[in-house]
Amino acid sequence: MNTKSTNIPQSSKTQKSSNNTAFAVLLALGLSHLFNDTLQSVITAVYPLLKDSLLLSFSQIGMITLVFQLSSSVFQPLIGLYTDKKPQPYSLPIGMCFTMAGIFLLSLAGSFEAVLVAVMFTGMGSAIFHPEASRLAYMAAGGRPGTAQSLFQVGGNIGSSLGPLLAAVFISPYGQGNIKWLCGISIVAIMLMLRISIWYKNNLHRLKPKSEIIKEKKDIGLSAGRIKFILTILLILIFSKYFYMASITSYYTFFLIDKFGVSTQDSQMYLFAFLFAVACGTLIGGPVGDKIGRKYVIWISILGAAPFALMMPYANLFWTCVLSIIIGFILASAFSAILVYAQELLPGKVGLVAGLFFGLAFGIAGIGSALMGKLADMTSIAYVYQVCAFLPLIGVCAAFLPNFKKVHK
What we know:
It is a single chain. Helix 5 (about 75-85) packs antiparallel against helix 17 and helix 12 runs antiparallel to helix 13 (about 295-305). This protein is mainly alpha-helical. It is built from 18 helices and no strands.
């Protein structure tokens, strides 16, 4: 990754370099996202450990997720709006410092309230990281925004799948205190992010000038009211996707333990399989959206998962695992397409869109987890999965999206 400033004037040469896809930067961003989301996913992966050691109810587990996700979601759109006007190249390592503090505090937490403080710090780290990291992916994309977002997102999804694996191997057998050793991942991530920040600072010429943003707005050819309607549909689809995803990431281990009597470590391995399938699906969604149009990827992704989601609550252990992998793969392909679709609708507001959609995704997951925890305490985990199985049907709303496709050469 070249971190030296080229000092090239705004000319055809500059424009050409700006249109090139910086794959080295995208890979570094994906790796940074992997580190960030590995640490984030450890929180949900150690829920069974925290529930037993601190004698927590399902409602309290849901509240932990709510605080964790809201501390991330509330700040993300605000950070994105601010950085659209004033880019902050060093926000990535700053965010990771917050995450590291949260992970360390979680290893020491001896009460429900202490866990809430720890996850709040971790959530704030995510809020600082995502808007600027998504802008960086857009900057480095050249003419392949869907591919760039997929490379960025797949790092996060792989990281999310590694959290349960790390919890199963290094934390559950030895206890909560072992969580602190994951701070080593934070230190490696900070060093990598500092390198990316230097590239960001030296390549601000890749940000689109105001004249080009105005031209893109005119080229879209949609009224402000129509754009708002489309964004509303996209947000509804995000609701469908992440409310359902919350039922798996927060409660899948409990569902498997309750229904099939598997061990905590085995349940974490099944969660790893689901999250790894999510990573694979994410890698596919962006490039396919660049080629065939993002509407079709969104439609297939969310609504296509519905029949498998409806079958899963009634399947045996083997088919539950298989169906969860299929659901994860199909559902995950949507997010990159939705995010780039929205960013192309609102030129010049990459950070705001990223913050809004990441923030909403995390916020919905938090609220959904809290509501499902309460429902699980009142009924059962199995009943929660029967109810949530209908959520992907909301994907039918994708029919209202226009065939909005930018052609990139």
